[in-house]
Write a structure and sequence with these properties.
Distance between the termini of chain A: 39 Å
Shape of chain B: globular
Number of strands of chain A: 11
Distance between the termini of chain B: 37 Å
Largest interface: A-B, 19 and 22 residues
Largest sheet of chain A: 7 strands, mixed
Number of strands of chain B: 11
Radius of gyration of chain A: 13 Å
Structural class of chain B: mainly beta
Number of helices of chain B: 0
Radius of gyration of chain B: 13 Å
Number of helices of chain A: 0
Oligomer: heterodimer
């Protein structure tokens, strides 16, 4: 079964850090570019970051540039998002997505004091 | 950055009705457009890729058309299980990859 499973979400204070993980199974992870997409409560979808299959190309949304770092380990079939200097507005469900057709179930990040 | 707009923002239709959603890009994106369905509490699901291609396993009542800046998504016969929010997304010019604001579809 093709699957992405996110983990690492939780409650964190403003200015804090979290590392999200996304474990892939059932498909050739190393062949897929990957994205992180988030959705604030009651809001639409917002793209966060992109990484190519070989990690040679990385992009970030302006809203997270300089604070978030995307990475992957193809040997471990895993995608990561290191989130530093978190703000209230980073509160959202974070989805990892393989290409555009494989999505995880999401992990919730809440930034609050 | 390419901006995506969708209309309407919400609609209410009867079972069996034809439903049409439009999406407009702020500049030419060729056919680099996806359509997603998202049900409450669930991840988005890809329905249409490259503006008009049906993703494997998606019912044929869903379709997409258009190129350049203007795109249309159609449900030919609305079913109760189609209640969801639908998003368009461009991937012609990254970064950023941009989504439309969504269209919420309800049953009348």
């Amino acid at each position: 079964e093709v699957q992405l499973v996110e983990s690492g979400g939780g409650l964190v204070q403003p200015g804090g850090s979290l590392r999200l993980s996304c474990a892939a199974s059932g498909f050739t992870f190393s062949s897929y570019s990957m994205n992180w997409v988030r959705q604030a409560p009651g809001k639409g979808l917002e793209w966060v970051s992109y990484i190519s299959s070989s990690s040679s190309t990385i992009y970030y949304a302006d809203s997270v540039k300089g604070r978030f770092t995307i990475s992957r380990d193809n040997a471990k079939n895993s995608l990561y998002l290191q989130m530093n200097s978190l703000r209230d507005e980073d509160t959202a469900v974070y989805y990892c997505a393989g290409g555009f057709n494989v999505w995880g179930q999401g992990t919730t990040v809440t930034v609050s004091s | 950055d390419i901006q995506m707009t969708q209309s309407p923002s919400s609609l209410s239709a009867s079972v069996g009705d034809r439903v049409t959603i439009t999406c407009q890009a702020s500049q030419d994106i060729s056919n680099y457009l996806n359509w997603y369905q998202q049900k409450p509490g669930k991840a988005p699901k890809l329905l249409i890729y490259d503006a008009s291609n049906l993703e494997t396993g998606v019912p044929s009542r869903f379709s997409g058309s258009g190129s350049g800046t203007d795109f249309t998504f159609t449900i030919s016969s609305l079913q109760p299980e189609d209640i969801a929010t639908y998003y368009c997304q461009q991937y012609d010019n990254l970064p950023p990859l941009t989504f439309g604001p969504g269209t919420k579809v309800d049953i009348k």
